[in-house]
Design a protein that fits this description.
789 residues; 16 helices; six-stranded antiparallel beta sheet; seven-stranded antiparallel beta sheet; alpha+beta
């Protein structure tokens, strides 16, 4: 039987004559940090102090003995970051140049000093650039010339910390006769039966040995012989329980076990979990353009999505527990789709296992983002090899529903001047429209493939045409107000978002000793977007009077603006289902403490946007929308059951006087939207009035003017401590009340975000992690919108 010996201990990290203990898996930065050689690059402006690390070469070493009674021993690396040569007592075992692949070397009977010598990724990338020529990109760093996590080189939300190291596990594998080299599971479902076909590749030491494979799943067992180095075994599971996305059903998972046998002797075992489900992507043409609708088990979905970036710029630090926490936060917010963005990595099995368990659909980008990628060798061969490995590696996961060729590169070629700058040079089109769809069609025909995001499906249309396929909305935020979200109904909104700073306690930890201001040195360093603070200011002043010199108010209002912006978009697009079939927020998470588009900041704290997502992505959403004929109330029902009720509409003054009132009955069938027109007499007349809609505990508000023009009364409210939290009673209109729990204690969390109270209403905000509650401290952590004058 194959035996595996982990090689996580006993490593040292060497540079010149210096050496220090090394953790494997890990990277150079985390080893230097643990040894006290470098300061924490996440704090202050330390990032610049450690830039030298990414420019150096580094060597990992340890003693190795491959002695074994087995016929062969392999040295197996699950991930090397990125360019390295592997030697044993100076003898070259091999060279690698791809972070996204595993690597294996025959070390049978060998003993000696194992060295993994990493060359700086800059050295490799700049050499490739010199050989292949310049290619345009969104950023100046040479990330497109090396198969490495692109955002290691910095992004408009991430630091430039170019890593090197043994970033995934390494082990010795001892085996005899044969071992399982690859298992490719094809899982399909037909009425009354689930089929599992396991295509097996084996590696042999003895060509003549007769081999069989035996597989089990769901109480069904089957055997097949191996012909040479390949075999295939088929199983049929009667009446399998279907795996569903969260909110649509349960997530039953089936254990699959495949054993490689020589006679009755087991040689190797492969184990995974699978789920039975069907997935289609409806890209049919219709009266509105070309659709992009996920269909799971025959059920058409409005995808409630978020974009995922690596949860740490040092991905070896992301544990199974951390994946569980972050993805659990996503599920708790109503998310049912997570897009693994193309500037990051193929995540670990822990990520996809968690998505399988939580019912989170996974849209997987191939790792290409925001640049023209050369297609010449050796890059082309590396791209195909990594695609083949990772497609097969991730195939067992029922959560995986889409392979996507790239992020924004087809759009970049058309709109960002690449066509002219490239002058006929390769730029990646051959990957997205050639290599990658061919690999997916060959290896994983059970899942759809999209050439990129955004992509309209054809060069005959603009790549980012909102009427066709996927759309990214970045004119809003970069140049336009978020009210412009309402100008279009895209078929699928795959990227959109608005920035805000992280939580106050996150800033205090990341910027120790600094007097916080919007433009203080540390705040500016932790703002990576081009003119990011300028865009924050311009976006803010369209709605509020900018609080000059008052950091706390600025911090609160920018977070309000972020939540309002995202709500404006999602409410509009959800109300247009099924024309619009999904929204994927940019972004769920951060990889360090930074001002960004994230709903959860770099320390894992939830911004007000996160809590707003819980409302926006709930099965039932009540919203007020402006349509051509006037205001309508929209009851968005993504649940399976009918939602029938009455919406109470109140036209009110900001002083709290009810000017007009009406009730309207509605019926929203399962997975539909019910629209009810609002009588003209109930529409607010000018900035002193607003409209309130209530139905079944849900509320929608419509203010016809920006806050800066609304003559709000000075907010008054009472605060008291109650078991488990803080109760606030409004004496006036209190708009967008927020308890910043981390101001009570760094570890404190609130159970809700922004809430608007009418006079006489109250809310209890649950708080955990606050050991010494008192009403005055609670009041000091409460913020709300105040009159501009």
């Amino acid at each position: 039987m194959l035996e595996a010996t982990p090689l996580g201990e006993g490593w040292i990290l060497r540079h010149d004559r210096a050496e220090l203990p090394a953790a494997v898996p890990g990277c150079v930065h985390t080893d230097l940090l643990a040894a006290g050689v470098i300061p924490d690059p996440f704090l202050g402006r330390n990032e610049t102090e450690v830039a030298w690390v990414g420019r150096r070469d580094w060597t990992y070493e340890r003693d190795l003995s491959a002695a074994s009674a087995h016929e062969q021993t392999d040295l197996a690396f699950d991930g090397l970051d990125t360019v390295a040569e592997i030697l044993l007592d100076g003898r070259l075992l091999g060279r690698v140049r791809n972070m996204h692949r595993s690597h294996r070397f025959d070390v049978t009977g060998l003993t000696g000093r194992l060295s993994v010598r990493f060359v700086s990724a800059y050295t490799e990338a700049e050499a490739m650039r010199g050989k292949l020529g310049e290619r345009p990109a969104a950023y100046a760093e040479p990330f497109a010339y090396v198969r490495k996590m692109a955002c290691s080189f910095g992004w408009d939300w991430g630091p430039t910390l170019v890593t090197a190291g043994i970033w995934r596990p390494v082990r010795l594998e001892h085996w005899s006769t044969a071992r399982i080299a690859r298992v490719r599971p094809l899982v399909t479902v037909e009425p009354g039966v689930g089929r599992v076909e396991l295509a097996v590749d084996v590696e042999r030491t003895r060509v003549e040995a007769p081999l069989t494979v035996e597989a089990t799943v769901g109480g069904v067992r089957a055997r097949a012989s191996v012909d040479g180095t390949q075999g295939s075994v088929r199983l049929e599971v009667p009446s399998p329980r279907l795996w569903w996305p969260r909110g649509y059903g349960e997530q039953p998972l089936y254990d699959v076990e495949l054993t490689l046998l020589h006679g009755d002797e087991p040689l190797d075992v492969w184990r995974r979990r699978i789920g039975f489900r069907t997935v289609e992507l409806d890209r049919s043409a219709d009266a509105h353009g070309t659709g992009f609708t996920f269909v799971v088990n025959g059920e058409r979905l409005f995808a409630r999505g978020v974009n995922w970036i690596p949860d740490d710029v040092f991905p070896s630090r992301v544990t199974r527990a951390r994946y569980r926490e972050r993805l659990g936060q996503a599920a708790d917010a109503g998310v049912d789709l997570v897009r693994v963005w193309g500037g990051g990595i193929y995540e670990s099995e822990d990520f996809y296992d968690t998505c399988d368990e939580l019912g989170l659909l996974v849209w997987q980008d191939f790792p290409f983002a925001c640049a023209a990628y050369p297609e010449e060798q050796p890059l082309r061969g590396e791209v195909e090899a990594e695609a083949r490995e990772n497609v097969v590696r991730l195939m067992p996961h029922p959560s995986l529903v889409l392979w996507n060729g790239n992020n924004e590169n087809l759009w970049g070629f058309r709109d960002w001047g690449w066509d002219r700058a490239l002058a006929g040079e390769s730029w990646g089109e051959g990957y997205y429209l050639g290599v990658l769809p061919r690999v997916v069609a060959e290896l994983d025909p059970t899942r759809p493939y999209a050439a990129g995001s955004p992509w309209s499906g054809s060069w005959e249309r603009h790549p980012n045409d909102p009427a066709h396929g996927t759309h990214h909305s970045w004119e809003v935020w970069n140049r336009e107000d978020y009210a412009e979200y309402r100008a279009h109904v895209p078929r699928f909104m795959a990227e959109f978002g608005w920035q805000a700073p992280p939580a106050y306690a996150t800033l205090r930890r990341a910027l120790p000793g600094e007097e916080l201001a919007a433009d203080s040195p540390g705040m500016l360093h932790h703002q990576k977007a081009d003119d990011g603070n300028g865009k924050l200011r311009r976006g803010l002043e369209r709605h509020f009077a900018v609080p000059e010199g008052d950091f706390d108010r600025w911090h609160y209002l920018t977070q309000v603006n972020q939540a309002r912006a995202v709500a404006t978009g999602i409410e509009h697009w959800r109300s247009h289902w099924p024309v619009c079939a999904g929204t994927v927020l940019w972004q769920l998470n951060d990889c360090w403490p930074v001002t960004s588009w994230a709903a959860i900041d770099g320390d894992g704290r939830e911004k007000p946007l996160y809590h707003e997502l819980r409302r926006l992505y709930a099965d039932r959403l009540l919203t007020l929308q402006v349509r051509e004929r006037g205001l309508v109330s929209a009851a968005v029902n993504q649940g399976a059951r009918v939602w029938a009720g009455a919406v109470r509409l109140r036209r009110m003054s900001v002083e709290g006087v009810v000017i007009g009132e009406a009730r309207s009955e509605f019926t929203a069938e399962g997975r539909t939207v019910a629209l009810v027109g609002v009588d003209r007499e109930l529409e607010p007349a000018g900035p002193k009035e607003f409209l309130v809609a209530d139905a079944d505990g849900l509320r929608a508000l419509h203010f016809p003017a920006p806050d800066r023009d609304i003559p709000y009364p000075r907010p008054e409210f009472e605060v008291e401590i109650v078991p488990g939290g803080v109760r606030v009673t409004a004496l006036t209109l209190v708009r967008d009340l927020l308890l910043q729990a981390d101001r009570l204690a760094p570890g404190a969390r609130a159970d809700r975000g922004l809430v608007t109270l009418l006079p006489g209403e109250e809310v209890t905000i649950g708080v955990r992690g606050w050991e010494t509650p008192d009403p005055e401290t609670a009041r000091s952590a409460l913020y709300c919108v105040e009159p501009s004058r």
